[in-house]
Amino acid sequence: MKILKRYIFSLIVLFVTLIITSIDFNSGKSIINIAVDSFKQMISVLPPIMLLLGLLDIWVPRETMLKYMGENSGIMGIILAIIFGSVAAGPLYAAFPITAVFIKKGVKFSNVMIFLGAWCTTKIPTLLFELSALGYKYTFTRMFVNLPFIIILGYLIEGLLKEEDLKEIYKN
C-alpha cells in the first residue's frame, strides 16, 4: 500500500494518458513522445550531476563548506552561492541533488535558497543568450534587479521557517 501511495500521481497521469489515447490516438502519441523526450533529457543530465556530487561530497570537507557557506559565512557565502548557481548548467531539477549535498554539508539555508535563485535566473548560458537576443541593457537591468531580490528572498524564506522546521530539514 505504501508503494501505491508513493506512486499515486504517476499512476493517475498514466491512467489519464490511456484515456486520452483511447479518445484521440494522435494526442496520446504526442503525450508519450513528450514524456519519452523528457526522460531522455533527464537521463542525459543526471549521471554527470551525480558524479560531480559524489566528488563534491568526498573532496570538499564539511568544515570547508561550513567556513565558506555556513552559518557565519557572511557575504562570502552569498557570493559563493551566486557563483555556484551562475556557472551551473542544466535544468532546475538538476539543482536539487546539489542542494541536498549543501544541506548535508551544513550550508546556511539562506545560501541554499540563494544558490537555487541564482541557478534559475543568473546562469551564464542564459545571460549569453539574453545578451545576443535582447541586448546588454535588458540583460544587465534584469541581473541588477534580480540579484538583490534573490538575496532578500533567501533570507526571507529562512526567516519565515521555524527553528524546528530548519532542524528537520537538516536532519533529513
Automatic annotation (TrEMBL):
Keyword tRNA processing recorded: no
Location relative to the cell: Cell membrane
Keywords: Cell membrane, Membrane, Transmembrane, Transmembrane helix
Membrane topology, as annotated: Multi-pass membrane protein
Presence of keyword Transmembrane helix: yes
Short name of any one Pfam family annotated for the protein: ArsP_1
Superkingdom field: Bacteria
Ranges annotated as spanning the membrane: 7-25, 45-62, 74-103, 109-131, 143-161
Family: Belongs to the UPF0718 family.
Name this protein carries in UniProt: Uncharacterized membrane protein YraQ (UPF0718 family)
